Queue: 2 jobs
Job 1
Amino acid sequence: MTPTVLGGGHETLYGHYLGAREFIGPDKTLGIINIDAHFDMRDDPEPSSGTMFRQILEEDDKAGYMCLGIQEFGNTKALFETAEKFGCEYILEKNLGVNDFKDSFAAIDDFSKRHDYLIMTLCTDSIVASAAPGVSAPSPLGLDPKTVKKHF
């Protein structure tokens, strides 16, 4: 059985993570693969859709994080530094799919092999704004929805 959580922004992801962690137990490693234009690792005093991945990594030393489709202009230098601090792996939007996705898939495979379980999540702000105009942070240079559907 594969649970599917729909709705909202990533404010639902922390609850999804808690359920997955409870199911797999404290000793298994959990990799989170997120297709997103943003890291969602802000250091804010209150949890939000922009903080949960940092929150998970601060609390869980058996969790890893990979983000696909990161937009350079959509993340501050501090967020790139935070990603580095927490050992996050990411592929910039402009590099995703280079070499007919072979390099991207190799990085995803490598990340996946290092974790016992995976959570995969898609933030629609990673999709080009013309195909996802109603998201909270539209990406004018986002990913093509047909590409995301076909490859991920």
Job 2
Amino acid sequence: MFDLSPADVMPRSVSRSDLQNPVLRALPQSVEFQRAMTAYGRPPLVLPEHDNMVVTRRTLLDRFDVAMINRAPLAEPQQLFSTLRQSVLKRVPIILSPERPSPELGSLGAVPLLSPASVALLPISPCSGTRRAGLHQKWRNRLNHATGHDLRVTRQNMPDNSEHWLFKADLIQQHQRQYRSWPVPLTLAYARENKGQAKLFQALQGKEILAAVLILCHGDSASYHISHTTALGKVLSAHNLLLWEAISWLAQKGCRQLDLGVINTEDAPGLARFKLGTGAKVSQLGGTWLFWPPMGRLLAPLARWDRRMMSATP
């Protein structure tokens, strides 16, 4: 367990420099995520000296505490490791998944666990014409196909209901595709603690719901969180229409970027094409590393074992 002071779990305040130079933070490093985790009963540790870096905790096998630093930019990794060695985390294994490739972590005692994944990041232009021009031709054709049918799009705050049909459909989808998403109570905590920042878009034909997407807003960014499309929704390209409407709404709200999540061209090529068809750019993450301060010297040879797999793609 972390021994946290009240200052550790308080969301960071927005300074004048933040307003002048807003930073596009990934969802796990946002103030909104801090609020959700605190309400969920797992208040994160915040490192003010490292641009309010968010550190969360997990317990593995009901016995082992590990700390996690997810999607954080590591501008000064050596100073970060020095801070961690002197903090309440000094005896806790730390799993780092940086926002950008950081191969220098190996020389500092971190051990590579997983090679870098990539995410699709969509810059959102305030101009509708520019956004439409950025769509790939096939994606634009599907959008036109969807608008040619009698589909209606609704938008609302995510209902505070753990039995909502989208959650049930997503749990089935997770089981079928063998992946894990947030626990439903955490998503609901996010919606409660960040009023109006968890938006549910649904496409209907008459009274039948054909598709839905849940978007989480954080700062000047947003993240594609949960989605589901029925068989008929796929035939009518309802998901394209929904995402286009969500992007248009985000643009009206001044959102600068939509994080569409991990791109996996091997296991989910269709979903990868769908995300990239919006005009999103591929951004490589920094892989996954293990840093355990008490074992730093012993793990150093392993850290040098294979650094190449953690380097940026040429």
